[in-house]
Amino acid sequence: MFLNHLITLSAVTVDKPTGFLGALATGAEDFIKVFNKGGSVLLSLMGGILPTLIVLLTAVNALVRIIGAERIENLGKAASRPGIQWYPVRYIILPFVAVFVLTNPMAYTMGRFLPERFKPAFYDSAVSFVHPILGIFPHANPGELFVYLGIATGIKELGYGLGDLAIRYLLVGLVVIFIRGIVTERITARMMAKSERSA
Q1: Which residues contact 192 (CB under 8 A, 6 or more apart)?
Q2: Residue 178: which of 42, 101, 86, 45 has the closest Cα?
Q3: Which phi-psi region, left, alpha or beta, contains residue 194 (left: φ > 0; alpha: ψ -120 to 50)?
Q4: How far apart are CA 135 and CA 87, in angstroms?
């Protein structure tokens, strides 16, 4: 008898509420769906990119300790030397090392070794490099990895490999930061000269 009663109760369906209560119920369901989606994204990251990022950060920290922080700082001091031969050091090597070792946003602190006239150009180079490095070294800017992954997804769907994309992304980035560094240095020099004349 009790079993028959339970079977009858389980067959009863409840109509979805309408009006204000229906809207409230739908809103509550949609609200929890956002968190369910967030949880599934987090789980996919934990099985995908997060372990790689943790291992890369550990390796980079070990590399800095092996090389020595003072040697990396000496590179910044060397890049501050005047002359056209120091452009590649100042606007390719220093931003690359800063972004690779210190990651975003700490990479910009390497500019402290440069004279004031070079700081804006170094910043422009470094900030322009935080995306191109992601294809090979995702630890450098994991907060914005979605930019590279969006491009990579499209390339993958076309059937191309990601290694070639990552290398090209990096190389084009190095050319762009070099050009931006030189142009910004020249603009800064003009603005500083104009400011000194008007003072």
Answers
A1: 117
A2: 86
A3: alpha
A4: 25
Contact 114, 91 (CB under 8 A): no
Q: Which residues contact 97 (CB under 8 A, 6 or more apart)?
A: 72, 75, 110
Q: Is 95 exposed, middle or buried (0-12, 13-18, 19+ CB in 10 A)?
A: buried
* Max CA distance (Å), the chain: 101
pLDDT tens profile 80-110 = 888 888 899 999 999 998 898 888 888 888 8
Please give the model's pTM, rounded to 2 decimal places.
0.64
CA distance 199 to 64: 44
Of 79, 82, 85, nearest to 114 by C-alpha is 79
CA–CA gap between residue 133 and residue 173 (Å, rounded): 8
